Amino acid sequence: MDISSLAALCMTHKAVENLNIASLASDDETWYALIQSRFGIGCNHRRSIRKQKQEGVVTVSRSCLSLSSSMDVMMRSTGGRKRRPTTYGGKDWKDAYRVLSSTMRIPETSITSGSTNGAVFASPYLRGRKGNNSNSVADYFGVWCMVNHAENCRTKTVQVQMGRRRRRTHRGIAREPVSLPYRLDRRYIELKLCLQNTKSGFGRVVIPDISAMRIPSLDEEACFASYGWDKWDDEYDSTFQLVEAGPWAPRILLRRRFSDDDAAHLDAQEWNAKSGVKDLILRPFEVVVLSVHISCPESMVFETDALSSMSSIRIPIVADGWPSTIKQVNNTHGCEATSKKDVSIARFVPEDSLWECYSQLPGGCLSLVDRSRLVPV
Known about the structure:
This protein is α+β, with helices and mostly antiparallel strands. The protein contains ten helices and 14 strands. Helix 3 (28-39) packs parallel to helix 5 (93-102). Mean pLDDT is 77; it is low at 59-80, 260-266, 325-337 and 373-377.
């Protein structure tokens, strides 16, 4: 049973305590579990680090013992108390789910929350669930964009990265030249894309090829919106280009399902080692965080130069295993309520909002605004 069916059951049936399914659909515990599954609120997002064990050697970490004991004391003192729904804009967890879902809140993970790296610069664009787009695949697929910030807030260059790799290996016996198979007249920015299948119940969302992702600039968005996106073919030299191969090829940083073990990585290493066409299959509520490098013009020295010029992120997606509802029209024609193919779009924030995360320093330098003391809501 999906979320819409649960909500309809709560509205159309009278809940009798512990006697019918309507009471279960209206239970606050049910909606809190659904919020944990989709948004990761209240889950443990600490990454588990696996260390190789040596025979005959026992390692004891004092910091881990003190941390676990302090956590146990804190849980006992709070009585295992969960978070409150009023923190998320609802009088109960059902109302909180409605608020979080309508705003397409980014799911909480160890990468997407709790630090400056969790600042979101692009969020999903919904066409609306009315009329012909009532069950569009794109409305059930979330795309959020973050940045893997550099210390000086500058975009990468091949020359600088090659120099850093040489310094890292200066202690080696043989100093082999390090080369990156990328253009020297371009600069690069690393983006972290959080992808989630927000459809509940059943149905998967498939990205046939991650290299088909497009990031148009503001001018390109206006141009292709007027003349058609089919004019954007493989021969078009776009302003921003995805790096598809080499050390900066797309790779999975995190892949989790909150309904299962939150610390379990699902075949991320196999996907990263895969060459050629890279597809992604996301089950209901599954979250994937991708690292992608985008090639920028040489004039875009700072991260703000690139982010303020980007208009949107467009990712082709396909629905897999979704049920089809046939609508009879005069008993002669029918149409599927589910759109099988679509393009998921995430819009970048305007430049005024962009500067809330950056601070301009004397001498033409940039720095990140310290967001570590801000509490995620």
